[in-house]
Amino acid sequence: MKLRVTCQGFIQFLLLSIGLSILAHFISQSGIIDNLWIITTVDIPLLILAFGLSLANIGSKVYRWKYLSNYYYREISWHDASLVSVSSLFFANITPGKIGDLYKAYFMKRRYGVQFLDGVSMIFYERFFELTILFLVAAGIAMIQLRAITVIALEFTLLVLFLLLVFYYKADFFIGLAQRVLVKLPTEKIDPGRDLRIRKMPFLNITVVFLITVISLVLEFVRLWVVALAFGFLLNPIQLSIFMSLAFIIGLVSQIPLGVGAMEGSLNYFVASMGVPSVTAIAIVLVDRTISMYFALVLGFIFSKFSLDALKDAVT
After folding, report:
1. 118 neighbors 108 (Cβ within 8 angstroms)
2. 18, 79, 86, 165: which could form a disulfide with 303 (CB 3.0–4.6 Å)?
3. Which of 87, 188, 167, 81 is nearest to 120 (CA)?
4. Is the model's pLDDT at 259 over the cut of 90?
5. Helix, strand and coil in the chain, % to nearest 5
6. Of 168, 219, 224, residue with least CA distance to 56
């Protein structure tokens, strides 16, 4: 077990190192190090607006989790919804494939006694809709330019969506199969008579979660557009949203924590392809990532301390 944890830690460190190396390469090649004065040209009021959009995006995630929790018969407070949602921004983004997002299911089980599988189902709805929307938006790349790397990224995303959909509709079968295997293992204490099922939401509730996710991603797209505007570039918002979605997917495919390097590099390339000088393009990307992902990571780390303290009074 200890060897397994050590191996996972090594792989995580290796992936992060690769991502940081890619990011360092793009920064050095962009020439921004010799032109740091570009940062001083940013429009402060617009930058504050972009930061406000980042906070609104985090708020939409908190509301989405509260809505999901309320459906699963546990009406949690805004305080706890904020704790679990914001802290997960840290746990999810420091792990490959955002596997750390399972912390939310763990929190709900320990804090409220919610069945772990219900928590996993809640996370599924969040991730599935996010990936679905990103794919649909990124699919618009066909109207702009189609290259080998974009085709591969889109095909991978479509495959993941298909597998998630199959798993969701056949979840009871897979869980039952896993249960029959686990009860035979001496290290696992699983009641063979226990009915493990993922409860699916009705269409109306699914629609609400989908709309909240749309709002969350629109806030992401608008924020990047505002950051570009703060640097004096009025970019096509639809085209920029398509490129941002594709950069998100590339970051996810890379399996690098935070998508470091992969997302910045691809987004820098896309922004530069829209006519923005490379030095300004990397500045736009770095500023946007700083007030969104890196800010969320620090905020999530702070909230994680409070959320772990809250589990000391856990009901289970």
Report:
1. yes
2. 86
3. 167
4. no
5. 80, 0, 20
6. 219
C-beta of residue 223 within 8 angstroms of C-beta of residue 239: no
Three-class DSSP category at 183: coil
Residue 130, token pair as written in the block: 């996010």
Distance CA 194, CA 196 (A): 6
Tell me the C-alpha to C-alpha distance, in Å, between residue 190 and each of 39, 170, 187, 195.
57, 21, 10, 11
| % residues pLDDT > 90 (the chain) | 33
Cβ–Cβ < 8 Å for 255, 248: no
User: Residue 141: its pLDDT value, please?
Assistant: 60
Q: Does the pLDDT at position 224 exceed 50?
A: yes
Segment 257-282 shows an average pLDDT of 88
Question: Which pLDDT score, from 0 to 100, does residue 181 have?
Answer: 43
% of residues, the chain, pLDDT over 70: 73
Maximum distance among all Cα pairs of the chain, rounded to whole angstroms: 67
Round to whole Å and give the CA distance between 152 and 150: 5
CB 248 within 8 A of CB 259: yes
**Structure-derived torsion over alpha carbons of residues 156, 296, 39, 17, reported in degrees to the nearest 10:** -60
* pTM (predicted TM-score): 0.81
- pLDDT, residue 182, reads 40
Report the C-alpha gap between 14 and 6 in whole angstroms.
12
How many whole angstroms separate alpha carbon 133 and alpha carbon 125?
12
Q: 288: closest CA among 42, 29, 85?
A: 42
Residue 7 lies in a domain: no
Q: Which residue has the higher pLDDT, 35 or 51?
A: 51
24 in a domain, yes or no?
Answer: no
User: Which pLDDT value is given to residue 161?
Assistant: 66
For residue 192, what are the domain limits? 42-69+76-311
Q: Assign residue 191 a region (left: φ > 0; alpha: ψ between -120 and 50; beta: otherwise).
A: beta
Query: Does residue 241 fall inside a structural domain?
Result: yes
In a domain, 15, yes or no: no
Q: Rounded to 5 degrees, what are φ and ψ at 157? A: -60, -45
In tens, the pLDDT along 166-177 reads 666 665 555 555
